[in-house]
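Record 1 of the preview.
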Amino acid sequence: MTQNAGAQFGYEDHFTPVRTRKKRKNRPQAAPPSPAVLLNRASEELANSDWLDDAQQTLRESLEEAFTALDAAQAVLCLGLGSPASSRDARAQLAFLLAACDDLSIDRTRVSVFDPVFVDQDLELLAQLRLTHLSENQQASYGMRSPTIVFMPHCDLHLYENLLRENWSQERLPNVFLIANRLSDYAESIPSRKLTSEHPCVARLAPYLTSRPLRPCTPYPTAFNNTSIQFVRSACLEERDADWWELPGRPPSVSPTSASERPASAPDGALSTSAGPAAEQKARPAPGAARELDDGETRAASANAVAAAAASVPVRPQARSRARGHLSVGDPSSPCTEA
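->
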C-alpha cells in the first residue's frame, strides 16, 4: 500500500474507542406497557377488522332469536378468560366482550368475571373497567335466574357440564345464552358411552342446541377458534320426557322444573351462586365445612376447591381448542335445530 493510500484511510486519525457493554447495560430500560394499554391496542385491532362487526351482528341476531327481544339479556357471566396481563388471546377476548356489551347497552357493572389465574394486575384492570370480580370459585356452577350471556372461551368440558347441570330445569336452561366451544363437537369426538357417563348434560343437550359460529378472526386466530353462540329454545325442552331430565344422583322425587319454586338466596340479579337444581342431584356433599343457605338447606364447600380449580381451568386454549372445518348444530331431524 502506498503512503497516499494509507493517508486516505486515516485509521489513526478517525479511530474511536468502543465503550464497554457493561456501561450500555446500565442504561434504564423503558417500562413495559400496562395491561390497560395492551387492552386498548387489542380493542383497536378488532375495531379495525371486519370480524368484530360480523360477530356483533351474529350476537344481536342470536339474542333476538333466543329471547325475542334484543335487550332481554342484561347480565353477563365470563369464566375462564385467562390473564389479560400476560395473554394476548385473553386481551382479545376481553376486548370483544367489552365491545359486545357496549353494542348491546349492557352496563359493565352487570358483567361478572372469574378465573383462578387472575393476578393483581388483572384485578386492577377489571376494577378500572368497572367489571365485577367474583371472589369465590364455583367451578362454573352458577344458576341463571334470568336470561344471561355466559362467555366461557375454551374452558374445560367439565365446566360446561357444571354450568348446564346447575341449570338443568325447564325454566333455567333457556336462560343460558352460551358463547363457548361448540358443544356438539364433543358429542362427535368423544365416544358416546364415555360422554354420556361423564358429562350427561352435554351429551343430552348438544343435539338440541341452536349454534351460530363466529367466523375465524384473522388478527387473533387462536382466541376465537371453535367459538360458537349456543342456546336452546323453550319449545325443545317441552318435548323432553321425564327420563331425559333425570340425571345420575338426582332423587326420583325431585321435579326438573322445581327451580322457579325455590326462594332466591343471592342478591338481586341474574346470577345465583346458591344451591339450584344441580345441588339436589348430588349424591353426597364434598368434604369441607358446610354453610347455611337462605332456604334452610346446607351446602358443602371444600377448603381445597379453589386451589384445585387453578389446575383444572386452562390458562390458554391452544392445547384444548378444536378448529374444525364444519359446523354442527345438532340433530338435523330435530325440529328444534336448524341446518
